[in-house]
Amino acid sequence: MFTCKLTDLIIYPVKSLKGISLTSSNAGLKGFQYDRRWMLVDDAGHFITQRTLPVLATLGVTKSNKGWTISYGQERINIPHELSTKEKKKIVVWDSHLEVSLAPYFYGEWLSDHLNIHCHLVYMDENVKRPVDAHYQTNNELVSFADAFPYLLIGESSLQDLNSRMKDPVPVDRFRPNLVFSGGEPFYEDTFDRIEIGEAVFKAVKPCARCIVTTTDQQSGLRGSEPLLTLSKYRKKENHVLFGQNLICLKEGKIKVGDTLYLSALKK
To answer: What is the CATH number of the domain that holds 240?
Structure first.
């Protein structure tokens, strides 16, 4: 049995914008506190991500006194941690149809001006229930604006294995994980079932099928062919390229960088 330690904990307050590394956070049913509670949508309410707009990678997000600061070049705009408003908008995230809070008009205008598209900023409050796919639920788990699952776990050994096969290595931010750990052989996370970290307990539900976002440089917003091309040569199964493990949270609680991952069960 390997000893595994949590080495990074990342949240993405605004879906598809830059993430923020934290030393600790509260793990909940929807994901980490504040993780992907904000999102950009078009006029029809369809979600906007780096899949179609890679320039989103260049928008920074940092903590401010009362919320988050979104930056584009030298320009800044502040948004709160949570939004309280009566104005709602019907939106679509994959197969989920939800009614969420619509941020004041000027937020969308600021983003629209810098991204050269027309968009709106929306917020998911705690009253909005977006269930995880029923095939993967254990106890009616929920998810925020994340694609499908509230947590993504990646092992450092897996990234090292991938980079050893490529001419130009890529950082882990290409895969936009929430949890990164050290220890274990490459793709050790593929064998996980139940994982205890700090006060929280997670369940691994399925490997993460990777998309074109992994080919977007998270600093410049420029897009290439790697690492998806290399991964497709040895991590492809049933027409999906797999890297990382999706998790749901079985028991809420605080976790922190440096915590040991206790594997109470492995897949057989």
So the answer is: 2.40.33.20
